[in-house]
């Protein structure tokens, strides 16, 4: 039973327990509704427990070929060529000679 089905069962049980006022001599509708609501709550709990159980078995491993692609370069060889980091003077803005 999934969570949506469990909620539906709880709603049906609540309708039987609190909204229906008919009398059936052999069945207490309030008690039946509460029992159905408890069954829906148990279904939601069981669904949650089954969905969140830890997986047993071998842990997931990464293919060494794929792992090699994502390794970073050693610090001594960050770039093959030196990077020019000297500050440059910003260019002067050009005057605008458009229509006024």
TrEMBL record:
Signal peptide: none
Coiled coil: none
Residue ranges of domain DUF6458 in the record: 1-57
Keyword entries, A-Z: Membrane, Transmembrane, Transmembrane helix
Region (Disordered): 57-100
Top-level division of the source organism's lineage: Bacteria
Biased composition (Basic and acidic residues): 65-100
Organism, scientific name: Kribbella hippodromi
Residues spanning the membrane: 29-48
Stated name of the protein: DUF6458 domain-containing protein
């Amino acid at each position: 039973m999934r969570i949506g089905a469990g909620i539906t069962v709880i709603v049906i049980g609540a309708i039987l327990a609190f909204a229906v006022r008919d009398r059936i001599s052999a069945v207490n509708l309030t008690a039946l509704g509460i029992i159905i609501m408890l069954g829906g709550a148990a279904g939601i709990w069981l669904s949650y427990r089954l969905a969140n159980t830890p997986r047993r078995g071998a842990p997931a491993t990464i293919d060494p070929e794929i792992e090699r692609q994502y390794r970073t370069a050693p610090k001594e060889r960050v770039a093959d060529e030196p990077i020019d980091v000297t500050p440059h003077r910003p260019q002067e803005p050009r005057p605008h000679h458009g229509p006024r």
